[in-house]
Write a structure and sequence with these properties.
This protein is mainly beta. It has two domains: 135 residues, no CATH class; 66 residues, no CATH class. Helix content is 10%, strand content 27%. Strand 6 and strand 7 form a beta hairpin. The longest helix is centred in the middle third of the chain and has 13 residues. It is globular. It binds FE2/S2 (inorganic) cluster. FE2/S2 (inorganic) cluster binds next to strand 10.
């Protein structure tokens, strides 16, 4: 796939063993993952918005003393940022769970372990029971809250995905444990471009690793939860 090469359009470029270079005046906002007593995620809480900048560099190695921004620490901490994630599009990777009016796509390779989907019966059973309006509504909300985009629900009648509407923006995920920083939640279809110029599939929501420990770079794989 070719590079995007459009000036002023929001985009995120990955640098080899270095930061994410964000350009195009992309809003940056803090997002806290709120959990219930069982540790399952129940909602997102939006916090501080940073002043908008045309271009900025976000830490990818996890070592910056000026997070979320890069301070050059990757040059000293031997950060190994090789991108190992699959480049196969979502629809070719997803498995399916069928319900009466909706179907659920599930591509575990995107998972960042936010745990919205395992609350109660779990999203898979709710989709199967989605003839019940309450089960349908809850399943749709769970999929919409899945920040990594692992889970996507389609309406069988319209054949359209039921996606939340996002402004193009980046969320700095924090929690559920205080002091643990989660991934960058990239919302609204911002192109993410690899260090070798490949444009990853443009999606409404994906999560990028910012702890430096993911085994699925550039995407988050939940490794930040291990501290
Ligand atoms: S931020 Fe989740 S694995 Fe790095």
């Amino acid at each position: 796939m070719s590079d995007t090469n459009k000036k002023d359009e929001p985009e995120i470029r990955i640098t080899k063993n270095g930061p994410y270079i964000v350009s195009g005046n992309v809003p940056l906002v803090r997002l806290t993952l709120v959990c219930n007593s069982s540790g399952d995620a129940v909602e997102w809480k939006e916090g501080e918005r940073y002043p908008v900048q045309e271009t900025y560099a976000l830490c990818r190695c996890g070592g910056s003393h000026n997070k979320p921004f890069c301070d050059g620490t990757h040059l000293n901490n031997h950060f190994e940022g090789t991108e190992t994630a699959s480049r196969v599009p979502y629809l070719k990777r997803a498995g399916w769970t069928e319900g009466p009016g909706i179907r659920l796509g599930d591509a575990p390779g995107f998972c960042s372990h936010a745990r919205f989907c395992v609350r109660g019966k779990g999203i898979w059973e709710l989709v199967e029971e989605s003839g019940n309006p309450k089960a349908r509504k809850t399943a749709i909300q769970m999929a919409a809250d899945c920040n990594s985009g692992r889970l996507v629900i389609w309406d069988k009648k319209t054949r359209e995905p039921l996606e939340p509407a996002f402004e193009k923006s980046i969320g700095l995920v924090e929690g559920p444990i205080k002091g643990i920083f989660g991934p960058l939640l990239v919302r609204g279809g911002i192109p993410v471009i690899s260090a070798d110029g490949f444009v990853y599939e443009i999606r409404n929501r994906v999560t990028l690793c910012r702890c430096g420990n993911s085994g699925n770079k550039p995407f988050c794989d939940g490794s930040h939860m291990r501290g």
